[in-house]
């Protein structure tokens, strides 16, 4: 541990970030020449930096192709940056051994947009939720059964739904199950990649409310990837706006929405339907507000 962090770990510990991302770069090969060598590259992420504190939510917003998912994947070491550093819980994840990175899976995990794809269709719900417990804990069968029942109950499902298959559930229920699975190892960070984008608007608020309650209860930190500014406004404490791989601007949610500095952010906001005051009144009943 470097001296600076040791000093921070004293009185200000609660405020020191659990995630520090600095100067991330990532490109992909877009086209290869006749020899199979890279001919053209996509610069998916260019010099992206941000921090996230314990129990807080940082939204990453931007249009499709902005590089949001690539950033989320790199944070969990599911993709390796070409340059830059990522410190998670104080440790540099890029310098970790594979064994250390596996341990990290327990503390940091991901929820995806499409719960139909993130759950194995041939596995019973109970098995899917128990899987991380098998991989990352020493709980025996009885312990796993109790934990799975408790998790499903917490996300609003019934115990007897353990012995059903994914196709027997609605999209909203499946996302709750995916959340139960993500919670199994008691993570401190969850990267949520468009977690409600595939759901009906009426169900979106319920799932976001659940995520927010879990955050208050367990001090979970979220990286919340979304293209939906109305949801971001209600859900996030801080916002990072990305465009074509780069950060356009970053700041507390209030500042980004009430006093955006950059033209691109202003354009994004002006395209947001909820900014119309007549609609805002009806929307605000169904959406959540960030707990600070
Ligand atoms: N595995 C990959 N291989 C090649 N190109 C990729 C890969 N992942 C992402 N990209 C490209 O990187 C850019 C950013 O993608 P992504 O991070 O998925 O953006 P977003 O999540 O904001 O829609 C896009 O141009 C995309 O096509
Ligand atoms: Mg994406």
TrEMBL record:
Keywords: ATP-binding, Nucleotide-binding, Transport. GO terms for molecular function: ATP binding. Pfam families: ABC_tran, oligo_HPY. Residues 29-269 form the ABC transporter domain. It comes from the Bacteria. The keyword Hydrolase does not apply. The keyword Membrane does not apply. Belongs to the ABC transporter superfamily. This is ATP-binding cassette domain-containing protein.
């Amino acid at each position: 541990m470097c001296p600076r962090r040791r000093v921070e770990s004293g009185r200000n510990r609660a405020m020191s970030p659990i995630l520090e991302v600095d100067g991330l770069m990532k490109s992909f090969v877009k086209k290869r020449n006749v020899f199979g060598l890279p001919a053209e590259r996509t610069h998916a992420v260019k010099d992206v930096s941000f921090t996230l504190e314990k129990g807080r939510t940082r939204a990453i917003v931007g249009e499709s192709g902005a590089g949001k998912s690539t950033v989320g994947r790199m944070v969990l070491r599911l993709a390796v940056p070409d340059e830059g550093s990522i410190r998670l819980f104080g440790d540099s994840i890029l310098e970790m051994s594979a064994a250390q990175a596996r341990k990290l899976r327990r503390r940091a995990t991901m929820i995806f947009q499409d719960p139909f794809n993130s759950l194995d269709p041939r596995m019973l719900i109970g098995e899917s939720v128990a899987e991380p417990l098998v991989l990352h804990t020493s709980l025996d069968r009885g312990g796993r059964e109790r934990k799975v029942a408790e998790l499903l109950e917490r996300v609003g499902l019934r115990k007897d739904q353990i012995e059903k298959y994914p196709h027997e559930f609605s999209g909203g229920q499946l996302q709750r199950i995916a959340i139960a699975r993500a919670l199994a190892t008691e993570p401190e960070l969850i990267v949520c990649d468009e977690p409600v984008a595939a759901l009906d608007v009426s169900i979106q608020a319920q799932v976001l409310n659940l995520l927010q309650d879990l955050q208050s209860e367990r001090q979970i930190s979220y990286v919340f990837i979304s293209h939906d500014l109305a949801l971001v406004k209600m859900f996030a404490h801080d916002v990072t706006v990305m465009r074509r791989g780069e950060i356009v601007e970053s700041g507390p949610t209030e500042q980004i929405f009430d006093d955006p500095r950059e033209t691109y952010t202003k354009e994004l906001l002006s395209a947001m339907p909820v900014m119309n005051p007549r609609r805002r009144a009806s929307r605000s009943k169904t959406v959540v507000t960030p707990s600070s």
